[in-house]
Amino acid sequence: MATLESLIGNTPLVDLDRVVKGCVEGVKLLAKVEGNNPGGSVKDRAAYGMFMGAEQRGVLNRETRIFEATSGNTGIALAMMAARRGYQLTLVMPETMTLERRATMAAYGADFLLVTAEQGMEGAIDLVNAKVANGEGIKLDQFSNADNWGAHYRTTGPEIWRDTQGQITHFVSAMGTTGTIMGVSRALKERNPQIQIIGVQPDEGSQIAGIRRWPQAYMPKIFEPSRVDTILDVNTAEAREMTRRLARDEGLFCGLSAGGAVAAALKVCQGLSQPGTVVVIIPDRGDRYLSTDLFL
C-alpha cells in the first residue's frame, strides 16, 4: 500500500518530438513531468526533504509554527507535507500569486500572509525573517537549506540518468530557489562531467511565475555559480507562447515556468550540430494558472 511520501518522485520523461521538429537529426528533447507528483509540482521533492531533515535534527514539534516565503508551488508542497505530518504552517507570499494557489494552500489547512506586489518575494522573505527574529516560529528556509538541493541530488538527478540510460548531454532548468539545478547538477556531473547544465532566468524587465532573476542581496545561499555551465535569459512572451504550444501541440498542460524552460531548451537543441539528449524540467501543471489570461 502506497503512502503519500512514496508517491513523490519517479516522474516520467516525455519526448517533445513536435517541439523539437526541425533540429538536427538525432537531437532529442525530453521533458521530466513534475506535475505528476502528488502535490502537483517539483517542489514536493524539496518540501519532503526539508521536513525530513528538520525532523531528523529535532527542530520541529507540534507546537512550533513554521513560517516560509513562497511564490506558490513550494507553499503548496509544504502545506501538503505539514498536513500529512501534523505541523502548523504560515506561508508568506506576494499578493500577485494566483487564486488557485491560495485556495490549494488553504485546503491543506495552511495559513498565509500576503505582501504587496511591489514588495515581491524580497518583501516576503523579509517578513518571514522578522517573524522568526521575533520568536513567533521557525523557518525551513528553502533558499539556504541544503535539504532543498539534497532532495534533487538523491532523486531527480539519478532518475534522469537512469531513464536516459546515461545518454543525457544537456540538462535545462528554470531557476527559482535554484534547489533543482544545484542538486541535479551535482548528481549528473558526478556521473559524467561533460553533461552541460543550463539555467534559465527571466530577462531584464520580464516576470515569469516560478522563475527568478534575483537581486544580488537576495541570491539564494544554496546557489553555486560554478555548478551551472550556462545561463539563458527568456522573456515573458517566449514563455507564454511555449506554454500554450506545449498544451496544443504536445498535450502537456503546464505552468508558465515550464514554457520558459522549454523555450530555452529548444534554443539549446537548435544550437546542436550533432545528436544529443536534452532534458528539461516541467515544474508544475497548468491548472494553477486558469484564473489568469495565460491560456485565453
Automatic annotation (TrEMBL):
Enzyme class (EC, first level): transferase
Residues where pyridoxal 5'-phosphate binds: N73, G176, T177, T178, G179, T180, S257
Sites of N6-(pyridoxal phosphate)lysine modification: K43
Pathway given in the UniProt record: Amino-acid biosynthesis; L-cysteine biosynthesis; L-cysteine from L-serine: step 2/2
Catalysis performed (reactions): O-acetyl-L-serine + hydrogen sulfide = L-cysteine + acetate
EC numbers: 2.5.1.47
Molecular function terms from GO: cysteine synthase activity
Tryptophan synthase beta chain-like PALP domain ranges (all copies): 6-284
Cofactor: pyridoxal 5'-phosphate
Family designation: Belongs to the cysteine synthase/cystathionine beta-synthase family.
Protein name listed in UniProt: Cysteine synthase
Record organism: Magnetococcus marinus (strain ATCC BAA-1437 / JCM 17883 / MC-1)
